[in-house]
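Sanity check record (used in CI):
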Amino acid sequence: MSKACIVGIGIHPFGRTDGMTGLDMGAAAVRSALADAGVRWGDVQFAYGGSDSAGNADTMVSRLGLTGVQFINVKNGCATGGSALFGAASMIGAGEYDLGIAVGFDKHPRGAFDPKPAEWGLPDWYGETGLMLTTQFFAMKIQRYMRQFGISPETLGRVAEKSFRNGARADHAWRRTPVDLETIMHSQMVSDPLTKYMFCSPAEGAVALVLASEKRATAMGGPIIRLEAAAMRTRPPASFEVFAPSVDIGGGTATATRLASAAAFEAAGIDPGDVDVAQLQDTEAGAEIMHMAENGFCADGEQEQWLAEGRTELNGALPVNTDGGCIACGEPIGASGLRQVYENVVQLRGAGGARQVPGDPKVGYTHVYGAPGISAVTILSR
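Expected output for Acetyl-CoA acetyltransferase:
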């Protein structure tokens, strides 16, 4: 199978954009990605795209042009963008086509997400206990993890502080003002131990990626970023995942993230130590901490020292969430996973400007996680 290559990237800034629909943002991101790749919409042979709550992606053909292109809608929670990318990469890898697009977008209303238990196959009691409120679920999960592995509340604050500092350097980020550690730690408590500045917010935005076969990418003559692996997994037994109705405290250590990460590393033929820059799901600060270990970059409990020593900073041993992640950018569900890939392409091209990772990075890693306990991982190289 031929590896898919990313030859064009486009983004509509995250945050709030009055007067534009999610579909409008998606179309804007597609146009930007096409221009970056130096191709026309009429050249595109297929597209995969999706959103969680802002409409069917295929209807954007009325904005882009009625070319008869094959356009497949994707809806898969927080893995919507990653699933669109997986579908597009598989299409190229199978040799069906040699030029396509993956696009994700969303436009969420203000306030917390409001999922209903029945929509996720859960009984009413799950919502009545408050567990459908993800701020409460993630607080419970990180409390348990902190007690198990000796993580301090200050380490949660360091994650958020880094996120806002990096976001201030990213043009597409929503929150672009640094927030100091003291302010983060003493801000309003939302769900103990997570304060207001430790959470991401539902947002708006869009990302599009143009993918090509290796042969076509080489002929195009631009910078080539290879998609070495794309893996997605659902939750195994006994794992403690969002919207999982119970947890077996005597169970094993397998999680959806550990499964997806292991599969991606195997497919790419590399180890965690080979990664130069990583974007990890940070729905809240605790998620980034747990996912550092679940993706194989450190052992459980080592995050305390990693954050204190600055190892995940832009100039650290493993820069994490170089554009501020979800905490600074917000989370439009359909676009969030593709934003991570977008950011890694920027980093591998050496085009990050004030947030550029030093040392000429060559391998980028992304990880997205969401309900109902699903994870998707990509590994890029140049």
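The chain has two domains: 4-110+204-226, 118-201+227-381. If this sentence no longer matches the regenerated tokens, the check is flagged for review.
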